[in-house]
Amino acid sequence: MSATSTAPTVPKWVNVFVRALLRSPLHRAMSHNTMLLTFTGRTSGTSYTIPVRYLEDRSTLTVFTDSGWWRNLRGGVPVELVLRGHKRTGTGQPILQDEAANATSLRAFLLARPGDAKYHGVRLDASKHPLAEDLERAARTSTMVDIALTS
Question: What is the rounded distance in angstroms from the CA atom of residue 129 to the CA atom of residue 125?
Fold first, then answer.
């Protein structure tokens, strides 16, 4: 997954603002699709907290990222979340799959969350379906991460 992404980069101040909002009583403005994910860096031992967009299916949360932070979750590691204003724990695991399977998973994610297409540089057609050529490119640069909730 080394292809260059055409997804827009998010300025640092936006993440700072989103983190503050999701920790505040005003979290409801975003917490239906955005959560805070905290994990420890594999080599640095540093704790990182990042806002991520998610899709929930029972006790599993799925996120897609174009960034490299997912490498810290290889092998399945404990993570902490702020999910809809509540602190939760889980196990994060990158799902490394071939490009075709990744495209299928990303397509399903974007069909459920069409507003997220812009974060992956994917255009939508008139019926809000991802354009195949954009989806194929995004699948080369995106990594799927599943988080199994434990509390």
Answer: 5
